């Protein structure tokens, strides 16, 4: 439980950078990478 909350600032910061990336240059490759990272992060957060 503790590790999940410690990682929240990193994850939210990561998402903010990705959202800024989307607004400047949205591509299918960026979307694919985001979905890939989400599939990696979500199971770890839900453990």
Task: Describe this entry's structure for a reader.
- With 47 residues, this protein is mainly α.
- It has one domain.
- 89% of the residues lie in helices and 0% in strands.
- The protein is built from two helices and no strands.
- Helix 1 (2-24) runs antiparallel to helix 2 (28-46).
- The longest helix has 23 residues, at 2-24.
Label the overall shape: flat
The end-to-end span amounts to: 8 Å
Helical amount:
over 70%
How many structural domains does the protein architecture include?
A: 1
Helical segment count: 2
What is the average per-residue confidence, as pLDDT, rounded to a whole number?
74
Low-confidence stretches: none
Q: Gyration radius, to the nearest Å?
A: 12 Å
Number of distinct beta strands: 0
Q: Let me know the largest β-sheet.
A: none
- Proportion of residues in extended strands: under 5%
Global structural class: mainly alpha
Order of helices and strands: HH
